[in-house]
Amino acid sequence: MPGRGSVPPEKIARVDALAATLVARPMVAVVGIRGVPAAALQSMRRELRRREHPITVATNSAIRHAIEKAMETRPAFRPLLDQVQDPTAILSAEGNPFSLFQEFLKTRSPTPARGGEVAPADILVPAGTTNFKPGPIVGELQHAGFPAAIEKGKVILKKDTTIVRAGQPISREVAGLLTRLEIFPLEVGLTLRAVVDGTTFYPPEVLSVDLEERRAELARSAALAIGLAVELGYPTTETIPRLLGRAHRRALGLAIATGTVTKETIEPLFSKAVREAAAVGRLMGH
Predict the structure, then answer these.
(1) pTM for the predicted model, two decimal places
(2) CATH number for the domain whose boundaries are 123-184
(3) pLDDT tens-digit map of 214-233
(4) Residues in a beta bridge with 161
(5) 3-state DSSP assignment of residue 220
């Protein structure tokens, strides 16, 4: 930390404490907090603390200095420095980076645009009847690019319309009308920018995995593999009970077909004999 002699001791102490926190746990994450209202942020921090994933909010300068100091012990932290931009928090905990990413996704919720923001995705306005009463609102909608009209005394949007393309700015006019239509195109919440777990760096595009779908895929693959192994007669811990069951059923079927009498075949053989005798009786007219 350059120039420590001119830095107030309390700031140095905070950086040292944060660096010690970073090296104390195997998983460290950089968290974006831009746009999160103070009250919502406090609520999210309480919930994360309850889940044993507490985040620490500090200035970007303090976070960078803490990471640089922690790098003396764990050089793998270096890629995290590039993620310290915009309002930032830091997390140090134990756990699974992929589960942590999903946990942070749950903190995000739709929020209205105010105007001036960049659309994160295409903003689609669906066709249909609105709650607006006929009047000047129709002209306002049309002026902003919404396909508005009046039908049967109601204000309608005649077709699905992409009102703002991804990456384009949302005008104040469009933002206000979207809010009145109860279309909230933005999200507010915590963003997991990157994680270092042990010595492995995970960018967000790697962490963005649907865990439930992956578990379902794994279960389907396991079922198919067991089915193939049983069909091939390949013995494993999982297939032996199924192989024995199949062998038993086939042996029982063969014994019944050949009339072999055992404790297990005697009952189905008698039942078979009764059915055959009844069939013969019907053929003879009895």
Answers:
(1) 0.57
(2) 3.90.105.20
(3) 778 888 888 888 888 888 88
(4) 125
(5) helix
